[in-house]
Amino acid sequence: MTAFFTRCCRRIERGLAKLLPGLLLLAALAAQAGSIEPTRAALSPGDEAYTLSAEFAIDLGSRLEDAVARGVPLYFTLEFILERNRKYWVNEHIVARSLGYRLAYSSLTRQYRLTTGSLHQNFPSLADALRVVGRIAALPVADKDALKSGESYEAAVRLALDRSQLPKPFQVDAITDRSLQVEAKVLRWQFTAPLAVAQ
């Protein structure tokens, strides 16, 4: 009788040993956090202001994608900062600009609705809506006279999921659950204001 139990236990151990790597891989994939990574950004002088153009690769992760498809709105914040380097003092703050987005799914129209301020736009898929959130084109960020010609500045841009705007149960879960976390990376670059053209 003891020999029978020993053989059964060994078979169970071998079966678990074969199954364990697959289960660990599934758990790791399920626990992956999303990410928002800037792929490019640039400042350009316009007629009256300097404008920002940027692109972000957005991956919310399956848990947040499922949440928004079930009607939970997601809020994003675009943050831009421009500073001038100083040798013996902290950087001089030149300008800061932020822009908020609200992304929600309407089960009535079966469309994703993206809201920025008072502007609304509908999309047939989440991928289309996220593509627009992740593409900033010609956003005015600084007046022409705020930057000095020929001076070098440090610019930084970031797009982040605003977890404080999530429903309370999601906020609590997002503290420990990696599948509800979205890592937002910052892109920094040097910018030199072009010299004024003599007329």
List keywords for this structure.
single chain; 199 residues; alpha+beta; 2 domains; 6-stranded antiparallel sheet; 4-stranded mixed sheet; 44% strand
Helical amount? 25-40%
Task: Quote the beta fraction.
Answer: 35-45%
**Tally of DSSP helical segments:** 4
Please describe the biggest sheet, giving its number of strands, its sense, and whether it closes into a barrel. 6 strands, antiparallel
Count of individual domains: 2
Distance between the amino and carboxyl termini: 102 Å
Order of helices and strands: HEEHEEEEHEEHEE
Classification by helices and strands: alpha+beta
Integer average pLDDT: 80
Strand order of the largest sheet: 6-5-4-3-8-10
Radius of gyration: 24 Å
Taking pLDDT < 50 over at least 5 consecutive residues as the criterion, the unreliable ranges are 19-31
Shape summary = globular
How many β-strands, per DSSP? 10
